[in-house]
Design a protein that fits this description.
Length: 873
């Protein structure tokens, strides 16, 4: 089948409640909207009941819960019939450590003799593990689990013996006569062993001891675990996809679907979790090209996207032959340029005054790194130190370095590491990565004692230079580099996104995947430079503003962005909320931390549903449940008063009690009214920001990605809230029965104005594909009193010109007024834009404009909050 040209994607989250057949039902809607490709979450067989598909149990088969391969083929056929294609999210870095995973089950059953033993990153020689695979899965200590009967031997209908712990199952290899007995005899034997174990007999224990795995209390997992995980998730085991057999098995299905014409591209999940990302991307590119040739598609035609979180000033490697990232970088950039830098200082001061915390995100994340290395990633840290100690032993200059000394050096270095990881080749680091490492090492040496400095020097040298005295030394250095790289990536994720983001609350819109909260705002020149670079290097890169992993919905973030231009007003609101909430907790309750309280006010106001009234009891109950789920996750991720591994029920109950009092109790009515008033005042400014953000995503260089449902207002919270069902009937009605722009602006609260804007611009892309695929990028120069409050650029190709102009920094809202119309232009005074003079069609207004070189901004934004103009044919 021919390749469908990429114009725009729509991300769909598949699960048993929204299958491939359900997705097929929405193909006509997405085709009418202007989408060229549906971008599917993982479709491989996953843990039964999975709601996301990343807990893969068999990547070779389409998940029966999604409808299986017949449903996928039906979706493909229907998409093709509407001129659309499919892109698939693939998971090469981990699988579920679950009984439904045949590869994992085989390893549990046969240990190091299993064909799949080397497929997972298991350290069979880890000290103190007796050559077994340690599984920290028990809800209590092992001996207690046996004596209390929560660890039992069972025999299934086929006569296979298994060890059961609640809903978990583990294989049992039988020996001797019992292995030949019929199932009924085995079941009776199993019952006797279970009964005897509860009475103190050790027969069941001796049977378990003969297995290739060791079951342990989950609380010792970070001490005794000997397999690499995805981040710190014990139920997800890392794969060694660098091995030929593993690569072939993991990619068997997607490569076949590409060759058969059902897929036009793939998205690779968390490439930084792999041992050799560079080699992997190059190999996958070659395999995709090979599969594409069977369809007559030229090399590079099949899209290849990489999920990669880039640090400030970091770019995708030039030796990765891919189409770009999945869009976190753009999400950060477009949000940054719509934040007012003037809000940074007063909002930081407000946070410090009320929370008592530093307001310095770098300080927060460095402290979190130390905690994570000592906590959830301790086993990976110790494993890396062991590799360092082995390397040190081979050199006379370092053979006396103790493991403790090396551990201190490694911790000091990782504390300062600003990127997810380096990408060492066989001989070490390239110039760019060596410079990043040197910068981190230089900062790590500051105020460090001499023994730690010596350790840092050695670690830097081993990481940078792959040349050694002998083969053993060369091999050990490669292991050292791989261990450090595969530790630094999850450390960055866990300490930054899953800890510090929940401790630092200056403005939560900047605590987002792919963002650095210390970069409060982005200058227009930097935004333009990023767009121009993307047009040159990765013109098909995805442009996202919402994803299945976002912390806050795209329009919730834009409401918070409006606060950056209204810091004094927000300070007044916080003072009001604090006063009104002071007496809502019962006497003796543990009050929430001040920082948690300030973040709660931001979330309550920014996520407040547009249709929710302060006296709507049913709506408030639903809202309270949603916020409570976020609040619980935020408190546990922050790890300050309560933890996933050790919940502090008193603290959690107090936090929930305050929330319920604020939203549900009669005593909270004044606070509830104040929150509703603040939300109503902020909403129009946030909506104007949202229309600007939508316009930029749909017109900038790259391929815009629409997250399911976000064509309407997206005020979602962190997952699973951001994966709630989409009202497709409403969105289809919006597409079918669009009122005039004036009516849409008047009734903007229902979200149709955003959906209409999305459809208009997606359909413009469909009508002029070459302009968007190949058009250049040129910033528009502004002059005048409010030049800093307007952002514009031109896209030009083959005689066609597209002009995009949006306001920024609260340009259309001098004051927050809930009764103000959505389109309430500022008096632009003498502000002008320098444009290519021509006759233009105002895409959103439907009329024609003859523009001169110096055009007043007021003329461009007279009828709609944003302007998109195209030269007439």
């Amino acid at each position: 089948m021919s390749l469908i040209p990429l114009r725009a994607t729509a991300r769909l989250q598949l699960h048993a409640g929204f299958t491939l057949l359900d997705a097929a039902e929405q193909v006509p809607y997405y085709a009418g909207l202007g989408i060229s490709h549906l971008y599917l979450s993982p479709i491989g067989t996953a843990v039964p009941g999975s709601t996301h598909g990343y807990d893969v149990t068999d990547p070779r088969q389409v998940n029966p819960e999604l409808g299986g391969e017949p449903a996928l083929l039906h979706l493909s056929e229907r998409a093709r019939a509407h001129g659309m294609g499919l892109i698939l999210d693939i998971v090469p870095n981990h699988m579920a450590a679950h009984a439904a995973n045949p590869w994992w089950w085989d390893v549990l059953k046969h240990g190091r003799q299993s064909r799949h033993a080397s497929w997972f990153d298991i350290d069979w020689r880890a000290p103190g593990r007796d050559g077994k695979l340690w599984l920290p899965v028990l809800d209590r200590p092992y001996a207690q689990a046996l004596s209390e009967g929560v660890l039992q031997l069972q025999v299934d209908a086929d006569g296979e013996a298994q060890l059961a712990h609640h809903d978990q199952r583990f294989p049992i290899r039988l020996e001797g006569a019992i292995a030949q007995d019929p199932p009924a005899t085995r079941r009776a034997w199993a019952a006797r062993l279970n009964d005897a174990a509860r009475l103190g007999d050790d027969a069941l224990h001796r049977l378990i001891e003969r297995q290739c795995y060791r079951l342990a209390w989950w609380r010792v997992g970070n001490d005794m675990l000997n397999y690499r995980r995805f981040f710190d998730i014990t139920s997800l085991a890392a794969l060694r996809v660098e091995q030929n057999e593993v690569f072939a098995a993991v990619h068997e299905l997607p490569l076949r679907l590409v060759a058969e014409g059902h897929l036009d591209g793939v998205r690779v999940d968390h490439v930084d979790g792999l041992a050799d990302p560079t080699g992997y991307v190059q190999r996958l590119r070659a395999q995709l090209d090979r599969a594409g040739r069977r369809r007559g598609i030229a090399a590079g035609g099949i899209a290849l996207y990489i999920e990669k979180i880039l640090a400030p000033r970091e770019t995708l490697r030039s030796d990765w032959p891919c189409d770009g990232s999945t869009g976190y970088d753009f999400m950060d950039q477009v949000a940054g340029v719509l934040h007012d830098p003037a809000g940074a200082a007063p909002l930081t001061a407000l946070w410090r005054r009320w929370s008592g915390r530093s307001g310095d995100f770098g300080q927060e994340q460095r402290a979190a790194r130390d905690e994570i290395l000592r906590g959830s990633l301790q086993t990976e840290f110790v494993r890396t130190v062991q590799a360092l100690a082995a390397a040190a032993h081979l050199e006379p200059a370092t053979r006396e370095f103790s493991p403790q000394m090396l551990a201190q050096g490694l911790m000091a270095l990782l504390r300062q590491f600003e990127v997810y990881r380096t990408y060492a080749g066989p001989d070490g680091l390239d110039e760019a990565d060596a410079a990043r490492l040197a910068h981190a090492a230089q900062r790590a040496r500051v105020d460090a004692e001499p023994r730690v400095v010596a350790a840092i020097d050695a670690i830097e040298r081993w990481s940078r230079d792959g040349r050694g005295i002998g083969k053993a030394q060369v091999a050990l250095r490669r292991i050292v580099r791989r261990r450090i790289e595969q530790l630094s990536a999850p450390l960055n994720a866990k300490s930054v996104e899953d800890t510090a983001f929940y401790r630092h609350g200056v403005l939560l819109s900047r605590n987002e995947v792919g963002s650095d909260p210390d970069v409060f705002a982005l200058a227009p020149a930097d935004f333009h430079a990023a767009n121009a670079a993307r047009a040159q290097r990765h013109p098909r890169a995805l442009l996202a503003t919402a994803t299945h992993d976002h912390k806050r919905g795209e329009d919730l973030r834009m409401r918070l962005a409006a606060l950056s231009a209204q810091a004094p007003w927000w300070a007044e609101q916080v003072t009001r909320f604090q006063a009104l909430s002071a007496d809502l907790l019962p006497a003796g309750s543990a009050a929430p931390l001040p920082g948690d309280l300030l973040m709660l006010w931001q979330m309550l106001v920014a996520a407040w549903p547009l249709e929710l009234a302060a006296d709507d009891a049913d709506g408030l109950r639903d809202y309270a449940e949603r916020i409570a789920a976020w609040q619980l996750k935020a408190a546990r991720e922050a790890k300050l008063r309560t933890y996933w591994t050790w919940p502090n029920e008193a603290y959690e109950n107090a936090a929930r009690a305050l929330l319920d009092a604020a939203l549900l109790a009669p005593a909270g009515a004044p606070l509830r009214q104040a929150l509703a008033q603040a939300a109503a005042a902020l909403a129009p400014a946030g909506a104007r920001n949202s229309l600007a953000q939508t316009t930029l995503r749909l017109t900038a260089p790259g391929v815009p990605d629409l997250y399911q449902g976000s064509e309407g207002w997206d005020l979602s919270l962190v997952d699973p809230d951001n994966r709630r069902p989409v009202d497709y009937a409403l969105r289809a009605a919006w597409l079918r029965d669009a009122p005039t722009p004036a009516a849409l602006l008047r009734d903007w609260r229902n979200g149709q104005v955003k959906a209409w804007l999305t459809a208009q611009l997606l359909q413009l892309r469909a009508a002029h594909p070459a302009l968007f695929a190949h058009g250049g990028y040129r910033p528009l120069a502004a002059q005048g009193a409010h030049a800093e409050r307007v952002l514009g650029f031109a896209r030009e190709h083959d005689g066609q010109t597209l002009l995009v102009v949006v306001p920024r920094l609260g340009a259309t809202a001098q004051a927050l007024d809930p009764s103000a119309p959505l389109h309430a232009p500022l008096e632009w005074h003498d502000t002008i834009l320098t444009l290519p003079p021509a006759q233009y069609r105002h895409v959103l207004g439907g009329h024609t404009l003859a523009l001169s070189a110096a055009t007043p901004v007021s003329a461009l934004l007279a009828d709609f909050p944003v302007a998109v103009l195209a030269t007439l044919p």
